[in-house]
């Protein structure tokens, strides 16, 4: 495998959609894909444009924004490393229903839909593997939605921070990936609620100073969260 293909194959392997495919298949798909780097604030695709490709986040964060008929914009969701977006609309050849914007500096694997369709026609087992992975991914999403319905604002914030910690135990220091307004919208809470949640989490070993976050005990915070949501 060439040095150029390696990061694309790594991105493919990180995505649930491709995780069960053999290495040979991943390399074939990678040959027809490319890695793109975007600065924070750059558009990845525009709402209404023909959907000819979908994307995997290799590094960074992406936000999806939909413009309403009256010109107002709504943040729909965000995507982090290993997540795919626009795959459904690209595979059926529709139009992008929203605008994708780099919320931070991002590295993306761009998967051409037509090339992937040809791969599936040549090797139908690829399609079956992707369907199985998609079903598993949807099950995970349903669990996440159910969890969000049951969680308080503080618990959503704690869960979000634990996801950023990228460790299972010990202490963690990291930076928030984007501004607090976007984080609040992502979690479905008001920005004022987010600030109050940060303050209420301080007794549990969470210190937020601007964009810098320190968690004293990741395992302890996760255990508290699990007990409250059980």
Kindly list the characteristics that best describe this protein.
single chain, 230 residues, alpha+beta, Arc Repressor Mutant, subunit A, 2 domains, four-stranded antiparallel beta sheet, 9 helices, 11 strands
| Low-confidence blocks of residues | none
- Major beta sheet, strand line-up: 1-8-3-6
Q: Strand content of the residues, in percent? A: 15-25%
Structural class: alpha+beta
The CATH topology of the largest domain is given as Jelly Rolls
Describe the global form. globular
In angstroms, what separates the terminal alpha carbons? 45 Å
Number of domains: 2
Q: How many DSSP H or I helices?
A: 9
Mean pLDDT, as a whole number?
88
The ordered string of helix (H) and strand (E) elements is: HHEEEEEEHEEHHHEHHEEH
Helix content: 40-55%
- Would you count the extended β strands for me? 11
The CATH fourth-level homologous superfamily of the largest domain: Jelly Rolls
Largest sheet: 4 strands, antiparallel
CATH class of the largest domain: Mainly Beta
CATH architecture of the largest domain: Sandwich
Radius of gyration: 19 Å
Question: How would you describe this structure to a colleague?
Answer:
The protein is an alpha+beta fold. It has two domains: 6-125, Jelly Rolls (Sandwich); 151-229, Winged helix-like DNA-binding domain superfamily/Winged helix DNA-binding domain (Arc Repressor Mutant, subunit A). The chain has helices spanning 6-14, 23-31, 87-91, 113-122, 124-150, 153-165, 180-187, 191-200, 218-229; strands at residues 33-38, 43-45, 53-59, 62-67, 73-79, 84-85, 99-102, 106-112, 172-175, 206-209, 212-215. The chain has a four-stranded antiparallel sheet. The chain has a four-stranded antiparallel sheet with strand order 2-7-4-5. The longest helix is centred in the middle third of the chain and has 27 residues, at 124-150. The radius of gyration is 19 Å and the shape is globular.
